[in-house]
C-alpha cells in the first residue's frame, strides 16, 4: 500500500465515524441486533483499544526492531473483560481520536523504505509495514461497514443485519 493512500484513509476515518455517530442517543449507541454483534459503542471502544494496543504497538515494533513479533488481539475477549457496553461514548471516542492523531503523526515520519520492514504477526504470519497499513485501513473499512449495518437496522428494525466483517485479526 502506498503511504500517501494509507495516510489519507487513516486520516479520513475519524470524521466518517464521528459523522455516523452524531446525534445518536444512549439506547441507539448500545443497541445490539443479536448475540455476538458489537453495538455502536462497542465498535468505538474496540477501535480505541485496537488503535493503542494493536496498531500503535505494531507500528512501533516494526519501526524499532528487527523481525519483531506483532501481537494479535482478541477483540471479543477485550469487549467482555473491559465491559464495553458499560462505558461512555465521549471518553472512548476522544481516546480513539487522540491515539489516531498520534499514529498519523508517527506515520508522517515514515519513509517509503520503511514500508518494507517486516515482522511476524501473531496468528497471521510475516507482514511488512505496507501490509500492516493495508490491514489497518481494511479494519477501519470493516468497522464502517458494521456501523452502517447497525444504523440500517436502527432505521428499519425488520432488517436483518449482514454478518460482521470485523472479526478478522486485528
Write the layout of secondary structure elements.
Elements: H1 3-21, H2 26-30, H3 40-64, E1 69-70, H4 75-81, H5 89-107, E2 118-121, E3 125-128, H6 129-155
Parallel strand pairs: 1-2
Antiparallel strand pairs: 2-3
Helix pairs in contact: 1-5, 1-6, 3-5, 3-6
Tell me what you see in this structure.
By secondary structure, this protein is mostly helical. The protein has one domain: dinb family like domain (Four Helix Bundle (Hemerythrin (Met), subunit A), Up-down Bundle). Helices cover 60% and strands 6% of the residues. The protein is built from 6 helices and 3 strands; from the N terminus they run αααβααββα. The chain has helices at 3-21, 26-30, 40-64, 75-81, 89-107, 129-155, and strands at residues 69-70, 118-121, 125-128. It has a 3-stranded mixed beta sheet. A hairpin with a 3-residue loop joins strand 2 and strand 3 (125-128). Helix 1 (3-21) packs antiparallel against helix 5 (89-107), helix 3 runs parallel beside helix 5 (89-107) and helix 3 packs antiparallel against helix 6. It is elongated.
